[in-house]
């Protein structure tokens, strides 16, 4: 009986979350429409995204604790990567990173009403089943990097609903882009998103979201033959941090 009432509360809480998620997009829609008319206005759009993300996290009972090993420099482009287990990952990335960045994300999200309209106008979309789509991502990313923006990719690709998986294998795209454009990689670790807001509907709870921003990994001395090595280095770094947390629980 207690679990039944807990599930009712979780249901109401998650409904509230998604109301905020879509409702705030609708509220900001007139401003978003204006600032997405020109690519040069993306920095303004990014600031609105940060307000959107922080508002959702605050109003649904989440608070963020950050640990920095190194901080980004204003005006410099980076490749931001992190483990990906929840919709909170997107909100958390937006709320803590100051450098304007562009997401590389899956094409399916463009179908979400209202949100999808702005998503496809501002993000780099990829259809992982289509080789031509993957090639177009590199061209689009190059354009954004040349304009002075950073890139954010969740290298696991798909989000799994298997709670036993700590970290799925990384795709090579983020690391290839970072090497080609001589961008430092910023590996972030999201410790609590899977527990706080998993894709299993009657699971989750508000509370603390811990983030670690690891020391940056330089790509200045690397070439494309080093992609797999760089992939493994980042994977092991994030996996080690996640497992270290599990051992302390």
Tell me what the structure shows.
This protein is of the alpha/beta class. It has helices spanning 2-35, 42-59, 88-96, 115-122, 131-146, 173-180, 193-196, 227-248; strands at residues 62-68, 79-82, 101-106, 124-126, 150-153, 185-190, 207-213. A 7-stranded mixed beta sheet has the order 1-7-6-2-5-3-4, with helices on both faces. Strand 3 (101-106), helix 4 and strand 4 (124-126) form a beta-alpha-beta unit. The longest helix has 34 residues, at 2-35. The model has no long low-confidence stretch (mean pLDDT 87).
Task: Describe this protein with a few key phrases.
single chain; 249 residues; alpha/beta; seven-stranded mixed beta sheet; 8 helices; globular
The major sheet is characterized as: 7 strands, mixed
Give the end-to-end Cα distance, rounded to a whole number of Å.
28 Å
Instruction: Supply the number of helical segments.
Output: 8
Query: What oligomerization state is this entry in?
Result: single chain
């Amino acid at each position: 009986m207690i679990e039944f009432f807990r599930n009712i509360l979780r249901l109401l809480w998650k409904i509230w979350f998604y109301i905020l998620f879509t409702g705030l997009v609708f509220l900001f829609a007139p401003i978003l429409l204006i600032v997405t008319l020109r690519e040069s206005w993306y920095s303004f759009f990014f600031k609105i995204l940060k307000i959107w993300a922080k508002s959702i996290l605050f109003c649904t009972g989440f608070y963020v604790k950050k640990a920095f090993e190194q901080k980004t420099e204003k005006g410099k482009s980076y490749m931001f990567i992190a483990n990906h287990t929840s919709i909170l990952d997107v909100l958390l990335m937006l709320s803590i990173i100051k450098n304007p960045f562009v997401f590389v994300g899956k094409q399916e999200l463009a179908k979400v009403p209202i949100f999808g309209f702005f998503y496809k106008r501002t993000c780099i979309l990829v259809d992982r089943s289509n080789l031509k789509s993957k090639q177009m991502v590199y061209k689009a990313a190059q354009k954004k990097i040349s304009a002075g923006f950073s890139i954010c990719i969740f290298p696991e690709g798909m989000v799994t609903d298997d709670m036993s998986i700590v970290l799925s294998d990384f795709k090579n795209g983020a690391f290839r882009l970072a090497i080609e454009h001589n961008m430092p990689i910023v590996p972030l670790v999201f410790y609590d998103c899977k527990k706080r807001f998993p894709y299993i509907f009657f699971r989750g709870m508000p509370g603390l979201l811990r983030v670690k921003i690891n020391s940056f990994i330089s790509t200045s001395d690397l070439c494309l033959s080093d992609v797999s090595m760089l992939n493994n280095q980042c994977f092991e770094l994030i996996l080690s941090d996640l497992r270290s947390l599990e051992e302390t629980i």
